[in-house]
């Protein structure tokens, strides 16, 4: 798929600097990239703030939402807000990210658990693992396995290929 705008969403309690030079590298390949700095928020507050920042940046649909780390479970909520504002979603990519799951109704649920729209995902999804050569976290191993079981394309970044190239290829396959 060819995105109108690629939206890179950093993990809560981080900044867009966590993406390093990836936004600039993606722009050099001709993509319209936004990497908003979402203030120190989590859960529903992160969704609300990120959604406002994305809308204020004037993105071109269809959007491809790219999440890193703990931003992954928040993508359905952000997508719902974008769709409500008539900005269709063309795809989702999880980069070393946690995956969304239905909301658990117990006191042990993580603070980033938020309700998932019943129609999610309404667009293709993919998973990019950027550190396959390093000792992987069990959570990311599980996320990759789960993405594969869902039939999503999964890619492992293979150095010396730039991460931007691996991400671009994954988005093209959606």
From TrEMBL:
SUPFAM superfamilies: alpha/beta-Hydrolases (SSF53474). It comes from the Bacteria. This is Alpha/beta hydrolase. It comes from Actinomadura syzygii.
């Amino acid at each position: 798929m060819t995105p109108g705008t690629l939206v890179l969403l950093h993990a809560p309690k981080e900044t867009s600097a966590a993406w390093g030079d990836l936004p600039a590298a993606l722009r050099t390949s001709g993509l319209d990239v936004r990497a908003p700095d979402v203030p120190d928020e989590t859960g529903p507050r992160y969704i609300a703030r990120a959604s406002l920042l994305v809308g204020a940046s004037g993105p071109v649909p269809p959007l491809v939402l790219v999440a890193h780390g703990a931003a992954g479970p928040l993508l359905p909520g952000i997508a719902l807000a974008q769709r409500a504002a008539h900005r269709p979603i063309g795809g989702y990519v999880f980069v070393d990210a946690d995956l969304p799951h239905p909301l658990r109704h117990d006191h042990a649920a993580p603070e980033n658990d938020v309700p998932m729209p019943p129609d999610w995902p309404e667009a293709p999804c993919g998973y990019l693992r950027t550190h396959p050569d390093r000792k992987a976290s069990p959570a990311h191993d599980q996320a990759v396995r789960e993405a594969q079981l869902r039939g999503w394309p999964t890619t492992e970044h293979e150095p010396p290929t730039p991460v931007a190239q691996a991400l671009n290829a994954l988005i093209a396959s959606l």
